[in-house]
Specification:
56% helix, 3 strands, three-stranded antiparallel sheet, 78 residues
Amino acid sequence: MDDIINLPPSSQKILHLLESGGALTHKELVHLSSLAPRTVRYALKRLKDNDMIVEKFNFRDARQILYEYKDPQMVSAR
């Protein structure tokens, strides 16, 4: 929980969208968050660096990556 407090507001917003919306593409996150594409990229980088999200292969469109919230309970259960 302390990690969330140290994140910039843009990262917190993206994390909230991923928690509630499931796996989303960069384009979907830009649309839903109303943030600039560069800001969303930075937010995703911060979340990845803090091991809070995972990147997945998008079978619907291989050109895009899906981003998904990494549930801390799933990680600690392994």
